Amino acid sequence: MKLSGGVEWALHCCVVLTTAGVPVPSARLAALHDVSPSYLAKQMQALSRAGLVHSVQGKTGGYVLTERAEDITLLDVVQAVDGASPAFVCTEIRRRGPLGTPPEQCTRQCPIARAMGAADEAWRASLAAVTIADLVASVEGDSGPEALPRIGAWLNEGPGGRP
Amino acid sequence: MKLSGGVEWALHCCVVLTTAGVPVPSARLAALHDVSPSYLAKQMQALSRAGLVHSVQGKTGGYVLTERAEDITLLDVVQAVDGASPAFVCTEIRRRGPLGTPPEQCTRQCPIARAMGAADEAWRASLAAVTIADLVASVEGDSGPEALPRIGAWLNEGPGGRP
Known about the structure:
elongated; homodimer; mainly alpha; 2 strands
């Protein structure tokens, strides 16, 4: 079971966008993180489709967070990039074969699907309990209060907010 | 993020193996569930590599659970089939680019990796809290106390324990 690598990139982008004073083009975010501009652009489009960022058009355009960092959870970002489907898919094999459970007895979800679903819910609840603002606070705790403003200044640099 | 489809098959096999009185060949388990014998054989081999089942050789051979159903958790089965790697892989992009965090400041895991790791732990804890015996009890609750013995009798049928 593996999450899309884009989840890591999208989360980093959300964190640094909290500190940018102006819209930031996807290419600038890719340059900051030294990652593939085209793959990062895909992640930003996924965040945009989910309504977590919006794209400001024009010469000084770029991405801005749509909501406050306190209102964006890790689950929002993970689901935007990786989709919201549960990791476990029940194919109802209990109904198959010579001793398959008759459909009329399958009024509840299969016990295996229930247990796997509960684990999925625990994972989602953990992600929903952490916001981008919490990550910002953790970065400040780890790297000091200057780290993110320094990144913000770099993102804003140059004519029209960037070089 | 998706788990291998083999997880569902392996869990069903563990549940029905609790009710079999004799070793059960992989092909018999595939026939019970009406699924691909070759793909099911792969899942049984994965369970065997993880030590959850062992293979009895010979004419009346087949698979038996190695441990009591109370001692096999869903996490054991999921990890046997799908691997134990965490869903989120941190590639340390915080260290990259013009403002990358210097290695000496990266004494703790990246905050993003910590939060994603906590969610992974929550998922694993949920799976570790449920055993095959719990699933057996749920099946009995849903389908009555005769459902699994009926399957056990079918698995044991025929000469040498099967037809």
